[in-house]
Amino acid sequence: MKKDLNSNTDIKITLLALGCSKNLIDCENMSTELRNAGYDVINDVEASDIVVINTCGFIESAKKEAIDAILDCADYKVPNGNVKKIIVSGCLSQRYPEDILKELPEVDAVLGTAHYGDIVDVVARLVSEIGSETKDKINLTSGVGGFSHLVKDRDLSTEAYAWLKIGEGCRHRCSFCAIPLIRGTFVSRPMEDILEEAKLIAAKGVKEIVLAAQDTTNYGIELYNERSLSKLLRKLSEIDGIEMIRVMYGYMDGITPELIEEMANNPKVAHYLDIPIQHGSDRILKAMYRRDNAELITSRLEMIRKAMPDCIIRTTVMVGFPGETEEDFQTLKDNLRKWKFDRLGCFIFSPEEGTPAYDMPDQVDVETKQRRYDEIYELQKEISAEQSQKRLGTVTRVNICSVSDDGIFYIGRSYGESPEVDPVIYIASQEEELKIGDFVEVKIVDCSDDYDMTAVTI
After folding, report:
1. How far apart are CA 341 and CA 315, in angstroms?
2. pLDDT tens track of the chain, all 458 residues?
3. Selection from 239, 88, 228, 94 nearest residue 167 by Cα
4. What CA–CA distance (Å, rounded) separates 176 from 386?
5. What is d(CA 287, CA 289) in angstroms, rounded to the nearest whole number?
6. Is the separation of the CB atoms in 29 and 116 below 8 Å?
7. d(CA 297, CA 76)
8. Which of 118, 235, 241, 391 could make a disulfide contact with 202, Cβ separation 3.0–4.6 Å?
9. Domains in the chain, start-ordered, CATH in brackets?
């Protein structure tokens, strides 16, 4: 039976965010637009009339996760369930719109990375078709990226922190990466827009903001003709209510003395950096079209740690890049031992259509890639444990994010733990009940776990 089109509140919509924090921000913006249009946005696929799946399409594992999510939602589609329409948005849609609509007939619409702002119109069109024989598919995938869909006063997914997008796209052209094809070249978001949104976030009682862009250190480079992240940090720190500002997704060549000085001297900026280096062999870095080399990485790390001895540094590396020899891999391991990153994520190279590395010669076999991946994680487990022990007995401020499933501990993060990608701190409170989003001082009393730590309030 066709729904009452005069009542958007009758339409229940669930949005699923896959992939990175930037996708989550885009999903939060779509959620806000739909709520403002009167739709009932819930978090229950089975009970929804429409499901929006905001996808990642960066690497093979992300594509598989997205396709699995689409198929899972399709299981709830009429006549087997309550779901009547499925919308797929984001990076996978941008890359493979025709394939999605052809191979996944359960999908009714695809929205690319420049069309998040069309979500209300697309939903209205799909709602008008519920109960009718109309089965036209919607394909909105022209253009890439942009900020037009951003709603400054948006729904937030958590009470403890908020991601804040400061840039879109990427100006780097790494030979393995499809991000510029999906999101476009790097553009900086105007500083006044960022500051306005940060003030609205603070007004909601959220005390930690996490800056997101494909390369935050490039902020301002094309808008203000200079790297302007340090200036942005200073302006953000002047906002009442904001107690911690975290920088994610930087590049080594953008870690300038000015940025380090601002981070070291600004008490609201976390002594934390996420700098994906991708490899430790100069030969492979050159083949990846990276501007970094081992000497630059070493000098920047020395500069950071001299100014901020307590700085927690996270990185990402890739194994199995075409032409990676055992010697290259050993060089990577040797340098990781020297550089001693506190946190590390590892990816296995997957050939992405449209990138130079897709059909490079000397592709590494699957078994070798997996072995190298496993070796990197075993090595990093030792390094992370060694680095964590340095924090035993120290006092730090933590942001209370949740409560453990057994109800015994609070779960929090200090300056050294970024949401979603890093370990957490389990906190035994000796005080009254703590509130989600509050900052409290704790003493770290146990670092024996491979990654997570335990602390007590003081």
Report:
1. 7
2. 444 445 687 999 999 999 888 889 999 999 999 999 999 999 999 999 999 999 987 677 778 889 999 999 999 998 889 999 999 999 999 989 999 999 999 999 999 999 999 999 999 999 998 877 767 899 999 988 788 889 889 999 889 999 999 999 999 999 999 888 888 899 999 999 999 999 999 999 999 999 999 999 999 999 999 999 999 999 999 999 999 999 999 999 999 999 999 999 999 999 999 999 999 999 999 999 999 999 999 999 999 999 999 999 999 999 999 999 999 999 999 999 999 999 999 999 999 989 999 999 999 999 999 999 999 999 999 999 999 999 999 999 999 999 998 888 999 999 999 998 999 999 998 767 899 999 999 999 999 887 899 999 98
3. 228
4. 32
5. 5
6. yes
7. 49
8. 241
9. 8-140 (3.40.50.12160), 162-389 (3.80.30.20), 395-457 (2.40.50.140)
Greatest CA span in the chain, whole angstroms?
Answer: 68
User: What's the rounded Cα separation, in Å, for the pair 405 and 423?
Assistant: 16
Structure tokens at 46: 């089975």
Residue entry with tokens 């670092």: 447
Q: How far apart are the C-alpha atoms of 227 and 254, rounded to whole Å?
A: 8
In whole angstroms, give the CA distance from residue 48 to residue 135: 19
d(CA 288, CA 172): 11
Number of other residues whose CB lies within 10 A of the CB of residue 157: 15
SS3 of 256-288: CHHHHHHHHHCCCEEEEEECCCECCCHHHHHHC
What is the spatial distance between Cα 79 and Cα 111, in angstroms, rounded to a whole number? 25
| HSE-CB for 3 with a 13 A CA cutoff | 21
